[in-house]
Design goal:
The protein is α/β, with parallel strands linked by helices. It has a single domain, classed as Vaccinia Virus protein VP39 (Rossmann fold, 3-Layer(aba) Sandwich), CATH 3.40.50. It is 34% helix and 20% strand. The chain contains 7 helices and 7 strands. A 7-stranded mixed sheet has the order 3-2-1-4-5-7-6. The longest helix has 26 residues.
Length: 235
């Protein structure tokens, strides 16, 4: 199914009117919730956040030198750049709260990026079209309001043949910080319809990460197990 046909079906189902409502709630409620979470999150301010990010990315098969002198989009970068793991990469941070994080959180490091866009992932940034050698996004997409649009944007940002690695939590119900229901079946269909090839999929984090990422490893009854996808854009 083409992306246009998918959009048509979503329109007929009333999805886009739901998205508009979701966007309003997301801007008014979810983003306030998100900023307040980052403001007081001690883990994100600590060295442990950097250490655990490095361990996590290595466990998924990445190395420090993978994207030297290449363009890496950190999609939903948050207040602290996980993408600094990739030594000498040209980091492009896309984060809706970027301006607030930089101006209000002294420990925020988004300003260290090559470029920063204080925009939601749902908004297409023309300047980035076919510019990225790699896209990474960890624990972000379940906090957004229009998943198909984000996936389409990612596809357009990538250089042909390049990779996106995205990790987000599975949700079977919504709350203020997680407006979307996301499952393997829902997400895989959207990836394929947007043109991606699912190169690899892993459900859950390795068990050794349960301390800082409770529930996401899948070794408990918590429904927020992480879904981890390696998505390849065709050449």
């Amino acid at each position: 199914m083409s992306f246009k046909k998918l959009c048509k079906l979503l329109y007929q189902s009333g999805w886009f009117s739901k998205v508009k409502s979701l966007e309003k709630e997301w801007r008014e409620d979810a983003q306030t919730f998100e900023f307040n979470f980052h403001k007081v999150n001690e883990f994100r301010q600590s060295q442990a956040f950097i250490t655990e990010t490095e361990r996590l990315l290595i466990s998924f098969g990445f190395t420090y030198t993978d994207y030297e002198d290449m363009s890496v989009i950190d999609l939903g970068a948050g207040s602290k750049l996980r993408s600094k793991f990739f030594a000498k990469a040209k980091i492009i941070a896309v984060e809706p709260l970027a301006d607030r994080f930089i101006n209000e959180l002294a420990w925020c490091d988004l300003q260290d990026s090559w470029k920063v866009y204080s925009q939601p992932a749902e908004f297409f940034i023309k300047e980035l079209e076919q510019s990225a050698n790699f896209i990474m996004s960890i624990n972000v997409l379940d906090h957004c309001f229009d998943f198909p649009k984000i996936v389409k944007n990612m596809y357009r940002y990538l250089v042909p043949g390049s990779l996106a690695f995205i990790s987000f939590d599975k949700h079977l119900e919504t709350n203020i910080g997680h407006p979307l229901i996301l499952t393997e079946n829902i997400c895989s269909k959207i990836f394929i319809d947007c043109g991606f090839y699912i190169e690899k999929f892993i459900s859950g984090f390795p068990v050794e990460f349960t301390r800082f990422y409770p529930g996401r490893s899948g070794y408990s009854s918590n429904n927020s197990i992480s879904l981890n996808y390696w998505l390849r854009k065709g050449k």
